[in-house]
Amino acid sequence: MCITFALIHLFIWFRQRGVIAHLLFSIAALGAAGCAFAEFWALTAGTIETYHSTVRWQHIPVFILLVSLVWFIVVYFGTARKWLAQLITALWVLVLVINFLSPHSIVFTDISYLKYVELPWGEQFSIAIGTNSPWKIIPDMASLLIILFLADASIQLWKRGDRRRAITIGGSSVFFILAGGIHSPLVDAGIVHTPYLISFAFLGIILAMGFELSNDVVRAALLLKEVKANERRWRSLLENVQLLVVGLDIFGKVNYVNPYFLKLTGFDKEEVQGKNWFEYFLPESAGGELKRLFYETLESEFYPHYQDPVITRNGEERLIDWSNVKLYDREGNIIGTLSIGADITEREEAFQEIK
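RESULT FIELD:
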């Protein structure tokens, strides 16, 4: 299940590289799968050497899962204390170093024997009976810090109003890490004679994270559908309105004109697209000044309304009254302008005749 989750969200991340939460979730899910395999290997260990080796290597997927979880919270919640995440990461790096430098592992200095416990349905599993390493306090402290880290980030998120996410991910993560963190030392000390429940605790966390991320994906799909519907409505309006519509990029090149513009000016779309507006479609006497105003509009002062003559394909000048807006990308950078204009040539001529 965890591997399936990991592959799905890894694929989503490949499609949406900016959403790093999906990548961190995939890594955490792979870590949870590794923990489950290592836990199963330890439970079925036939020798002390196999058990020692399994416990030692099990710390790698635990490290991957917990560190990924911490940084997932940093990215996904936006309320976590980054310095605390860095401290937890450093502690777990220290755990790995001590774990692989120790004769056996960071959990045991020595295993006296393996105790085999039979379940009610007849299946057996092994539990190590031995001396706990004094270094084991470091991963225990790191786990405690993770609980404090999650609780703090969830409380801050709750205060911001995102209560469901705070409870679903933050609350469930605190609960399952507490459950696993309390149960595992009792098994290590030989007080509780049951299999480790670490993988089940981690599975609960992965399910909670996956549930929220899946909701985000569904909401994003619905939002995209709504955006596309709105885009179709606006495009229909621009395509059918009896006004001229012109879009320019930041270099003054035409990237959009509507059918009414083509009808009024007599140009084909291919003759207009990509051409510099100020060089091809304005009188030479006005083009330079209007080009200067255009760049001023992009950089500072904005001119929402102005009038200028537009040259048609047959060389006729049509006076257009323009209304203009700036266009922005998602980062807030100006990417061009969109102008909607009314042909006031006849009105202006009639006004001049009256005068």
